[in-house]
Amino acid sequence: MNIKVFELGILGTNCYILEQGQKALIIDPGGGHDLLIDYFTEQSITPVAIVLTHAHFDHIGAVENIRNQYNIPVYIHPVEKDWLTDPDQNGSTLFGVGKIYSSKPAEYHLDEGPKSIDDFTFEVLHTPGHSPGSVSLSFKEDHILIAGDTLFQGSIGRTDLPFGNHDQLIENIQNKILTLPEVTMVYPGHGPSTTVRREKKYNPFLQ
């Protein structure tokens, strides 16, 4: 499986394109729908779904255009099922960035446990703390974890936003992420990638 990273939207959110053959999963398209469409066209890649680690506005900015362009479904944790269509809940109203939302809810839910979407198989880890519906996506065979805004290189997700919970975040990182093999590559919602080993050893928030 190949992974391509685009920094998109007003906060430079990492959008991950996971590719197998000529198919792709789109994770957290925070903006730049034209750039993504151009990439898929140039590479002759067919997107099969949009997967959201959570529904804060900076992770969903291109959902509407991409889902309509390719007629593909959106997946989200059920706790945040209403956030995708509600700028008051997804934070765009709070941050004064205009109303960012999609015209319809996600088609499918990401409940914790094994998940298959087309040719992609992974495990959904419910890792709330940054937001109540935050999930991390574990592709165990490839030693890849898409962590959203739960864990960063040398840092953790902010918990001062509505519905954030610092203790819950730390508990989920310790019990669900740091228990993965140390070679696991961690791809966060912002900034550079890291490894489980590095964060266990050096992350000051986890000591």
List the main descriptive attributes of the protein structure presented here:
six-stranded mixed β-sheet, 207 residues, 20% helix, alpha/beta, single chain, 14 strands
Layout of SSEs?
Blueprint: E1 2-8, E2 13-20, E3 23-27, H1 33-43, E4 46-51, H2 63-70, E5 74-76, H3 87-90, E6 108-109, E7 113-117, E8 120-126, E9 135-139, E10 144-148, E11 151-152, E12 155-156, H4 166-177, E13 185-188, E14 194-195, H5 196-202
Parallel strand pairs: 3-4, 4-5, 5-6, 10-13
Antiparallel strand pairs: 1-2, 2-3, 7-8, 8-9, 9-10, 11-12, 13-14
Question: Order of strands across the biggest sheet?
Answer: 1-2-3-4-5-6
End-to-end Cα distance:
33 Å
Contiguous helical run count: 5
Gross morphology is globular
Query: Please, what is the average pLDDT?
Result: 97
Poorly predicted regions: none
Number of strands: 14
Biggest sheet: strands, sense, closure?
A: 6 strands, mixed
Written as H for each helix and E for each strand, in order along the chain, the element string is EEEHEHEHEEEEEEEHEEH
Radius of gyration: 16 Å
Structural class: alpha/beta
Bin the strand percentage: 25-35%
Helix content: 10-25%
